[in-house]
Hints:
This protein has helices at residues 6-15, 48-56, 79-88, 104-113, 126-136, 151-159, 207-217, 248-259, 272-280, 296-306, 320-327, 332-335, and strands at 41-42, 60-63, 70-71, 74-75, 92-97, 123-125, 144-148, 163-164, 174-175, 181-182, 194-199, 223-226, 232-236, 242-246, 264-265, 289-293, 309-313, 341-343. By secondary structure, the chain is α/β, with parallel strands linked by helices. It contains twelve helices and 18 strands. It starts with 5 loop residues before the first helix and ends in a 13-residue tail after the last strand.
Amino acid sequence: MIFRTKHICKTLLQSKFLYPPTLRSLVPLQSLHTAHNMPCKEVSALSDGQVADWFNSFDTVMTDCDGVLWVGADAIPGSPDMIKRFRDLGKRVFYVTNNSTKHRREYKTKVDKLGFGGDLDEIVGTAYLAAAYLEQVGFDKNKLVYVVGSTGITQELDDVGIKYLPIGVSNSLSLDSSFILSGLKDLGCDLSAVGALVFGYTSNFTYYDILLANAVLANPACLFLLEAPDVTLVTRTDLGTKMTIPCTGSMVAAVSTAAGRKPIVLGKPSKFMFEIVQKRHPGIQPERTLMIGDRANTDILLGKNCGLQTLLVGSGVHSLAETRAWEVSEDGEERRMVADFYADKLGDLLDRVKAL
């Protein structure tokens, strides 16, 4: 599935998923920073004065990682220097990623190794959001979590004392030629003991994950949490080329269809990601926060949903050409994906801010 038609955008971001209610402890979010029908401004076309005014209008930067700061294990040229420049200019920088495969400690190691820097509390990943959400709703810690994903999620659950089934537990299941299911006794618990399904990215997704997820979700009291709705991601190949491959949203669609249930989305574009940052740092003002991303229907929509300023970079999924098409679209949801500003890559801002 590709995001780039209005039918798919609506299906993935409205019909298929649910979003957590706004945190009651937070001040209500402000109105959107710019009107939906305002054209996207290309940073390269702004005057020095306009760039200075823009940079003076925000104090906090929230940036996506994959496709903005790096692709795979390699930093995108100029991105580390621009993150440092934001800090030199007095901006607080937060890394916000829909990638649940790593614990925040692993991301801390990566941002340090690639030259971005930053503190652990400035990193917000969807594995962390899963643990934070379960804590927030008072999850019964006598129950278990079934994790479809990676150890990034289970490590965050460990940090808050929530127990879970082992990763890959569905491998104990099998169907014979008569469709008799075996292996349930090898799960180590009754299915009624599972109080939540947390669905994140895994390259080891199988039919038996769908089967077991469907079984636990038959209990209406079992929470169904989705780390992120991204249906694709961009990676590099051993030929040195970029390739778009299926991601979490593509896989969870099978579970949602089988179970007849919509997951609660924790990552972008859900407000929950920004609200967690704002709850931890109450001084952050939405209208003085810049959200940077390469994917319009997660990163930019997070900004629009929360009243943030938005910058789209063309080093990942979506392009300026697509943005120009959305500007004149008759579909209001497509027009909402139009960012306030655009640059080909984050490092291109360096030359524009030398004099600041």
